[in-house]
Design goal:
Length: 158
């Protein structure tokens, strides 16, 4: 852990050590120690990383497997039926998330006297948003509060 009496300890080096740590409990402990000591840590101008460090540090298990080497499951299996249930939950939550975002986006546009549909491309250009690619779940977007004009604009953007 970090000693409070040593102001020459460098924040970047400690952060690098925490990032490279593979044991989750130890990683958390290192991060908490850094946070507790942030007032006395200096910021290094250079950090010499150990080239043998694996960044970010990952636990030995589970073993990471390339997606192409993951065994295929049968469509009617139990991790597949459960996956459908989980995806349904994710979809429901995402529709709610998008609805909240739409609400506040429209509120801000109204407050600033902006047309939400016309202003969206301005924001995507300004902030270099990635280009949207279909297919779009149009029923879910309508359920989340997208207007017909927003759906039409979305379809034109592709």
């Amino acid at each position: 852990m970090v000693s409070k009496s040593s102001p020459s300890i460098e924040l970047r080096q400690l952060a690098l050590q925490a990032l490279a740590e593979s044991d989750p409990d130890r990683k958390v402990a290192l991060a908490l120690a850094i946070g507790a000591q942030k007032a006395v840590l200096s910021i290094a101008t250079t950090v010499h990383a150990n080239p043998e460090l694996r960044l970010p540090g990952r636990p030995i298990r589970p073993t990471l497997i390339h997606p192409a080497k993951v065994p295929r499951r049968q469509v009617g299996s139990f991790d597949a039926l459960r996956a459908v249930e989980i995806l349904d939950i994710i979809l429901r939550d995402e529709v709610g998330h998008v609805a909240i975002g739409n609400h506040w986006y429209r509120w801000l546009c109204e407050r600033d006297g902006l047309d939400p549909v016309a202003h969206y491309p301005v924001l995507t250009e300004r902030y270099k948003a990635p280009k949207l690619r279909p297919p779009f779940n149009l029923p879910a977007r309508l359920q989340a509060g997208f207007t017909e004009a927003e759906i039409a604009r979305l379809s034109q953007a592709c």
